[in-house]
Amino acid sequence: MSASSNSAESSSSSTTSGRSSRPPARPSVGPHVEPPRPLSQLKHDLPASVVVFLVALPLCLGIALASGAPLLAGMITGIVGGMVVSLVSGSALAVSGPAAGLAVIVMSGIESLGSYESFLLAVVLAGAFQIGLGALRAGIIGWYFPATVIRGLLAAIGALLILKQFPHAIGLDTDYMGDESFVGSDSRNTIEEIWYAITNLRFGALIVAAIGLAILFGWERIPAAKRPKWLPAPLLVVTLGAVANFVFGAIAPGLVITAEHSVQLPTGGPGALLESLRFPDFSRIGDIAIWTTGATLAVVASIETLLSIEAIDKIDPYKRTTPTNRELVAQGLGNMIAGLIGGLPMTAVIVRGSANVQSGARTKASAFAHGALLLLAVLALPAVLNLIPLAALAAVLLHVGYKLSPVSLFRQMFRRGWSEFLPFLATFLGILLTDLLKGVAIGMAVAIFFILKRNFEMPFYITKEKHTDAGMPYVRIELSENVTFLNKAAVIKALQEIPTGAVVEIDGTRSRFIHPDVIDAIHDYRTEAKLKNVDVVLIRVPHPAGPAMGH
């Protein structure tokens, strides 16, 4: 502010009613709780890793299928996301792997570049770009997602899981596991898919899913002390699903769940798997199309990762904050390694991370162990895991979806008022009806509207009282920290409503920025006020020729 505005610009005496300069008392937050360290909570992390593994397994395969890539590519990405990214990342609970949001980009990238090997080079470059973004501290973008949008994102992912997994639970597997788009890969939208599934119901799958859901919801009613620590409920669900299908084969062949409706891991042993690995085609390193695809992957994957990290931090029981720049570096390293050995691009994934939290994970050891389990599944257990019906895995995902999108959350957001509820609802519906990134963009637009509206309406605080000396009306206007051009109309309206004969004090002490148009409006009013017998006192409000910025 200009020096001439450091003191009141009128000799009129006034009674101020500003806030006390004494800092508020620090809120009581209870005893300090030290977040657990990796390897110190294995009794919680290992059972949780089994659940995350069971959630990730069909998603890795399904997203690879939807991307037009080899099935092994999805598993490679899940393994690298678990065993590499978790070690470098600063997140305790996030889990990385192939993301449904990248499936369309991957498929179009493979087609436009002409070969999967050329696309792998783009994945390697995407990882390098992400490491660069982390070094440039671009992760700060993640801090600008409003909490209402993040809550809408979580609720929408939960609802998507329910809507998208319901067809799998009753035996329709035409869409891949993990599909998040409103219009599926079979050209039917979500509602049409549900109706089509109902009209083509498979009773064997329905029985398996119903048993699984009964176990999962019943498990919660058992006191924690009485639950077997070594047996996560989802593991029991998939085991019983495989057993039930065996029983169907013995006593009710019409209910048998066939191979195309079960897990389909590549078989052939470690030797065959090594022979099927694909590697980047570095001969095209000078091709601008490769670099463009890599940059696109880096930007989209980074945004999805930052959204996922913010969402997982929200539901972390310890409320730990993930260092976003470090996360971009970790994701970049993961994508470079995945691309070098034939994997798909990866992000931190909300479905896996939320399953991790709900299963009681405490540290990143869970994410690492889930990657190790994926590696074990590929190398040693494909024949066993191929016995698991997709309906059993759908039951696990339905339960995760229910936990993410409870009715109580909608009631809670509604009680917070329209400025909180509408961005939440816009994000929720936007994701359901389009996809994750478009839905978040819609929610962000609505949230920004309310932020601008609030800023437009609340550029100051007004205190009105009787003047203690002469009995004249006294009005104190305390300007907020940032008074922008959008606030000009509200400031003028407030000044025009000041009664004749009043004393008005306009205090800009708290303001770090006052737009020049607002400064002009205040000084214009000061001239006009003399005609209304209004005495104007300006405190730290600069002259029109002075700087707009404050301290």
Characterization of the model:
- Residues 1-31 have low confidence and may be disordered.
- A 4-stranded mixed β-sheet has the order 3-4-6-8, with no helix packed on it.
- The chain has 551 residues and is of the alpha/beta class.
- The termini are close together.
- The radius of gyration is 29 Å and the shape is elongated.
- Helix 5 (147-169) packs parallel to helix 6 (190-199) and helix 16 packs antiparallel against helix 17 (418-433).
- It contains 20 helices and 8 strands.
- A hairpin with a 6-residue loop joins strand 3 and strand 4.
- The protein has 2 domains: 47-446, no CATH class; 458-539, 2-Layer Sandwich (Transcription Regulator spoIIAA).
- Residues 1-38 are annotated as: Disordered.
- It is a multi-pass membrane protein.
Salient structural properties:
single chain, 551 residues, alpha/beta, Transcription Regulator spoIIAA, 2 domains, 4-stranded mixed beta sheet, two-stranded antiparallel ribbon, 8 strands, elongated, disordered N terminus, SLC26A/SulP_fam, SLC26A/SulP_dom, transmembrane helix, Sulfate permease
Radius of gyration over C-alpha positions, nearest whole angstrom = 29 Å
What distance lies between the first and last C-alpha atoms, to the nearest angstrom? Answer: 7 Å
Shape: elongated
Structural class: alpha/beta
Domains, number: 2
Strand order of the largest sheet: 3-4-6-8
Determine the fraction of residues in helical runs and give it as a percent range: 55-70%
Task: Please mark out the parts with pLDDT under 50 across 5 or more consecutive residues, or reply none.
Answer: 1-31
N-to-C series of helices and strands: HHEHHHHHHHHHEHHHHHHHEEEHEEHE
Biggest pleated-sheet summary: 4 strands, mixed
Determine the mean pLDDT: 87
Assembly form of the protein: single chain
Number of helices: 20
Domain SLC26A/SulP transporter: 42-426
Membrane topology: Multi-pass membrane protein
Keywords: Membrane, Transmembrane, Transmembrane helix
Protein name: Sulfate permease
